[in-house]
Amino acid sequence: MRHILSILVENEAGALSRISGLFSARGYNIESLTVAPTEDATMSRMTIVTAGSDDVVEQITKQLNKLVEVVKVVDLTDGNHIERELMLVKVRAAGKDRDEMKRLADIFRGRILDVTDKSYTIELTGPGEKLDAFLQAIEPGAILETVRTGASGIGRGERILRV
Amino acid sequence: MQLTGAEIVIRCLQEEGVEYVFGYPGGAVLNIYDELFKQEQVKHVLVRHEQGAAHAADGYSRSSHKVGVCLVTSGPGVTNAVTGIATAYMDSIPMVIITGQVPTHAIGQDAFQECDTVGITRPCVKHNFLVKDVAQLAVTMKKAFYLAQTGRPGPVLVDIPKDVTQAKAEYSYPKTISLRSYNPVTRGHAGQIKKAVGLLLEAKRPMVYTGGGVILNTAAPQLTRLLRLLGFPCTNTLMGLGGFPGTDPQFTGMLGMHGTYESNMAMQSCDVLLAVGSRFDDRVIGNPTHFFRADRKIIHIDIDPSSISKRVRVDVPIVGYVADVLDEMLKLIESSPQRPDAQALKEWWGQIKEWQRKDCLKYDRKSALIKPQYVIEKLYELTGGDAIITSDVGQHQMWVAQYYKFDKPRRWINSGGLGTMGFGLPAAMGAILANPGATVACVTGEASIQMCIQELSTCKQYHLPVKIVNLNNKYMGMVRQWQQFFYGNRYAESYMDALPDFTKLAEAYGHVGMKVEKPGDVEGALREAFKLKDRLVFLDMITDQAENVFPMIPGGKGLTEMIFAEEL
Ligand SMILES: Cc1ncc(C[n+]2csc(CCOP(=O)(O)OP(=O)(O)O)c2C)c(N)n1
């Protein structure tokens, strides 16, 4: 099953490689990993999307907690949560396709950030499936380049992750 | 007070009460060596290879419960030490490794003797640090000693660039330290402990299985009291030997791949299993699917939550220091009117005694060749069972575990997790320095001993009277055994040809060498060796080449699928 882990980690050199090293050394799977400092600059927050049986995910959580620099680990998939991902996609937008591309971006609530006479660069946020759906809606040959951040997640309501 | 980084390192070691540093100098650590030279409190032991430094610090720690410290230079100094660091990591041994690094401005430039020490060692340390600012040095050293000893212990490495050892900073050593990201659970959950005690008191066929955690957490007294109170049978893992007296009638011998028939059968057949400071690893329970075919309730006490339900799902997990958890359990049992079902226990012991009648450790005592098992039995007798025994890896290691009955913890020093050949001799050096006056023997094989043989020179320099018992079968015996059983007797590269004359080799290093070729001479030679209290004696025992370790659970098989000597 797919799990989204939120991790608070000391903002120290090497913390990221300790975490990614743990995943590769123990053969755990990483679908995506995002990291940036929090409002408290001494700490970073990481979101890791992984997949595995309950036993494996339990081990992943325990092994992460064991790392000296990891402050807290929460499995967001244990409760209600919100998940968002940002994608920048450069598409061919010439001739008759140009209007169609604009319409499609609007439907998906995308924003056009950059325009040339042959292309649009579109910004899109949402759950991963929405971004997938957008890409599927475009004819494959029209996609020139994509870049995705991987998922970030946060608990709903009173569910708060902090020290 | 302003001190240089090098001075700070030494002051921190003094502050931690470090007696010995095992090390080897080189460019990046010269400032630290210069400060070592200027004082006398912290003594330095110059090994002959950095692997030896790490193993010696490790043996020092295992035999004393103190932190082992080693000091090596950048680049090759570090890479040589990695085997020793990984060995300590796998067995959770508290160590602090100080490594020199190229100057901060040269890091990343492929400088002379540069290597990414923190990167190379990351997967085999509990934690590591690169200290780029001398002002952080003292607090980092404090963290290193704190992390090494608390929670699940392990090696911690501090990498110090040369310019940091020269730079100056105000020195003060923190008395205590706390890290917001590091809070090991130390006290077991009261509700879980109660549940565990309930299960134990209701058990009809109980079994207690304990590992290295009992030794590391000095929980042997609590474990012994608990077992005496309950009258349950107890087995130890390879790492747990000495946690419960080996001569106690309640002790059923080691379990696992080369464990006793009775221990393995009882593990499989019990209805309540209490696991203490052990981790159900593959050499211990064999095939986990087979293990699960039997229905039993499992209680598991361990300091490391990730050791619980890793390979085997347990019913009552208890995270905490094992000594404290056992104390709590003892309190509950002592204040409870209930006692285990005496009739059921009697029947269970009856079953165990029947298994014991198989006499699974029997061997040919009339052989004209020296049987390795016989050597270990004699070693046991002549040392009164009270020596510190280190070993290397292979058949000889298993024979010590099977035939030397360890009554006390920290007497059996071996590389269980990583299985590192070359461990025995340097570990014995550390053990002898940590236990002046103790009898220390290193049981080894002619292949293993050659992996760190250079340390004979260190033993000469520091007058370390280790007794080396070389069970010389002219084979990498354990490899040969697998090839005999599973590879149709094709002994690919397991024959040790062109062996040195070990007697002369020992003599060349300034020690005493003895060669023993007949069973009748074993006892006399051992006596003579132990009489030479102040000398290192190398006993080259020419043993039966064809001898195998039994019982054995072949890889992938279940606990009860053992093969025995008589079946071959
Ligand atoms: C550094 C290292 N390399 C290889 C091995 C694999 N290995 C395990 S036991 C063994 C043979 C050991 O032979 P010896 O020291 O003569 O002991 P014996 O088994 O004959 O008692 C080998 C090669 C190991 N454990 N460690």
Overall morphology of chain B = globular
N-to-C span of chain A: 28 Å
Number of strands of chain A: 9
Largest interface: A-B, 20 and 19 residues
* Individual helix count of chain B: 22
Radius of gyration of chain A: 19 Å
**Terminal-residue CA separation of chain B:** 72 Å
How confident is the prediction overall: mean pLDDT of chain B?
Answer: 97
Major sheet characteristics of chain A = 5 strands, antiparallel
What oligomeric assembly is this protein in? Answer: heterodimer
Instruction: Give the topology string of chain A: H per helix, E per strand.
Output: EHEEHEEHEEHEE
> What is the overall silhouette of chain A?
elongated
Bound molecules: thiamine diphosphate
Strand-pairing-aware structural class of chain A: alpha+beta
Helix content of chain A: 25-40%
What does this entry look like structurally?
The complex is a heterodimer of chains A (163) and B (568). Chain A has 163 residues and is an alpha+beta fold. Chain A has helices at 15-25, 54-66, 97-107, 128-137; strands at residues 2-10, 32-37, 43-51, 70-75, 81-92, 111-115, 119-126, 143-148, 152-155. In chain B, the strands form four sheets. Chain B has a six-stranded parallel sheet with strand order 3-2-4-5-7-6, sandwiched between helices. In chain B, β4, α4 (76-90) and β5 form a beta-alpha-beta unit. In chain B, α11 (261-269) runs antiparallel to α15 and α16 crosses α17. Chain B is globular, with a radius of gyration of 24 Å. The mean pLDDT of chain B is 97. The A-B interface holds A 9-10, 13-14, 17-18, 21, 25, 55, 58-59, 62-63, 65-66, 68-71, 163 and B 118-119, 122-123, 126-127, 130, 147, 152, 179-182, 304-306, 309-310, 313. The structure holds thiamine diphosphate. The site of thiamine diphosphate (TPP) has 20 residues of chain B, from α17 and α20. Residues 392-396, 419-422, 445-448, 471, 473, 475-479 of chain B line the site of thiamine diphosphate.
Secondary-structure blueprint of this entry?
The complex is a heterodimer of chains A (163) and B (568).
Chain A lengths: L1 E9 L4 H11 L6 E6 L5 E9 L2 H13 L3 E6 L5 E12 L4 H11 L3 E5 L3 E8 L1 H10 L5 E6 L3 E4 L8
Antiparallel strand pairs in A: 1-3, 1-4, 2-3, 5-7, 5-8, 5-9, 6-7
Chain B lengths: L1 E3 H11 L4 E4 L6 H8 L5 E4 L3 H13 L5 E5 L3 H15 L4 E7 L15 H5 L5 E4 L6 H13 L5 E7 H5 L1 E3 L19 H13 L3 E5 L1 H5 L3 H11 L3 E3 L14 E4 L6 H9 L2 E5 L5 H4 L2 H5 L4 E6 L13 E4 L2 H13 L7 H15 L15 H11 L5 E4 L3 H9 L8 E2 L10 H11 L5 E6 L9 H7 L5 E6 L4 H10 L15 H7 L3 E5 L2 H13 L5 E6 L26
Parallel strand pairs in B: 2-3, 2-4, 4-5, 5-7, 6-7, 9-10, 9-12, 10-11, 12-13, 13-14, 15-16, 15-17, 17-18, 18-20, 19-20
Antiparallel strand pairs in B: 1-8
Helix pairs in contact in B: 1-2, 1-6, 3-4, 3-18, 8-14, 10-14, 11-15, 16-17, 16-22
Bound molecules: thiamine diphosphate.
